[in-house]
Specification:
The protein is α+β, with helices and mostly antiparallel strands and about 100 residues long. The chain has 2 domains: about 15-60, no CATH class; about 65-95, no CATH class. It is about 45% helix and about 25% strand. It contains 3 helices and 2 strands; from the N terminus they run αββαα. It has helices at about 15-25, 55-60, 70-95; strands spanning about 25-35, 40-50. The radius of gyration is 26 Å and the shape is flat.
Length: about 100
């Protein structure tokens, strides 16, 4: 009959690892350069940050709050901005004409 023998190897679940990464954050950075005969044709810079929202905000990263594709509040502000620009253009056209 098999017995459950405790062992000294500590197992870590994927959930534990993910929690640690989101708590601390992890940055992956890299550059790709394509050259032909010592002439640089293309450079691609890749930056990846994996962190929780709270950790990202602590680091001063909150671009998703002002991105209209991700934030309904940003979409509303973008539409209001567009309407104000149109109104300003009409007023300037009246004053100038």
């Amino acid at each position: 009959m098999p017995q459950n023998i405790p062992h000294s190897i500590q197992t870590t679940s994927l959930a534990d690892i993910l929690e640690r990464v989101l708590d601390k954050g992890i940055v992956i950075a890299g550059d790709i350069k394509i050259c032909l005969a010592d002439v640089e044709l293309l450079t691609i810079k890749i930056r990846l940050l994996v962190a929780s929202v709270e950790k990202a905000k602590e680091m001063g990263i909150d671009w998703w709050q002002s991105d209209p594709a991700l934030s309904s509040k940003a979409r509303v502000l973008e539409e209001e901005n567009h309407q104000l620009k149109e109104r300003l253009d009409r007023l300037e056209a009246r004053l100038g004409g």
